[in-house]
Design a protein that fits this description.
275 residues; alpha/beta; Rossmann fold; ten-stranded mixed β-sheet
Length: 275
């Protein structure tokens, strides 16, 4: 199976950094890159108010894409689309069926979480797809070998995307650690048993070169516990399962996924569960 990684670029530094990260990831896993730039032509686009929309000519975009692709080591296809980002991504997903969508995350620490409108949320709502969000401070050349999978013990399914994610983990020769955060020792003990059964049912650990480790942590909030676990630098990725109830409704900004996505110092892989 040949993996593809769909990478969004707007020619700002966070996107360039995410592309460099995706290039290292593709080279390590034998994947190809699909580089997508979306010309956001609509004056109704809310990002016009933030100054985050590039009003480049087609010639300038072609030159910028050519410059980016020359720096890559993995095979790459570059495309330009028009309109809203989520719609353009949905179209590209249908044609390329990538294992991941990769995008950069700019520094939003000074902005209240409720006011942050991310491309990640728009894509999750329009075309749920495994998505890797790369913060600007993550080392671009670090290939993920130690992955932390945070589970809450509830059953979930990834549907047809489970095979692609499992293949990616195996191709990276990754070591998987499953984390459960409990609010007290009793809930932690019960939760650790539940997450082991949940992981086995999903099949995500099949084909891994090393045995799955488990880790438990007592913390007042799940998101706080996950961020505490990654703060020590032991892991290269943190993986979260986003259920439809979080990313389809207005509760997303109060969800564990959103909080970790906005504040994690390492890349976050979001796996949307099927309804």
């Amino acid at each position: 199976m040949t993996l593809s990684l769909l990478v969004l670029t707007d020619f700002f530094q966070p996107a360039d950094h995410a592309l460099a990260y995706a290039d290292a990831l593709a080279s390590a896993s034998g994947a190809q890159l699909v580089l997508l730039h979306v010309r956001r032509d609509s004056l109704l686009d809310p990002e016009y108010l933030t100054g985050r929309v590039n009003n480049l000519s087609q010639e300038a975009i072609d030159l910028a894409l050519a410059s980016l692709t020359r720096q890559l080591t993995a095979p790459v296809v570059a495309e330009v689309a028009h309109g809203q980002v989520a719609d353009a991504v949905a179209n590209a997903l249908r044609r390329y069926q990538p294992a991941l969508v990769v995008l950069g995350h700019r520094n939003t620490e000074a902005i209240p979480d409720e006011l942050v409108s991310t491309a990640a949320l728009d894509i999750l709502r329009t075309a749920p797809q495994p998505m890797l969000v790369v913060p600007i401070r993550a080392p671009a050349s670090r290939v993920p070998r130690r992955i932390l999978l945070a589970l809450d013990g509830e059953d979930f399914s990834l549907g047809a995307q489970a095979g692609l994610v499992r293949h990616l983990f195996a191709a990276l020769h990754a070591e998987l650690t499953v984390l459960h955060v409990g609010h007290d020792p009793a809930s932690l003990a019960a939760g650790r048993a539940a997450v082991s059964e949940t992981l086995e049912r999903t099949g995500l650990a099949l084909g891994l070169a090393t045995a799955v480790r488990t880790q438990g942590l007592v913390h007042g909030t799940p998101a706080g516990g996950i961020l505490q676990a990654v703060a020590g630098g032991e892991f290269d990725w943190v993986v979260l399962v986003a259920r439809p109830r979080s990313f389809l409704g207005e509760l997303f900004h109060r969800s564990v996924t959103a909080h970790v996505l906005l504040h994690s110092p390492i890349p976050v892989l979001v796996l949307p569960a099927t309804p």
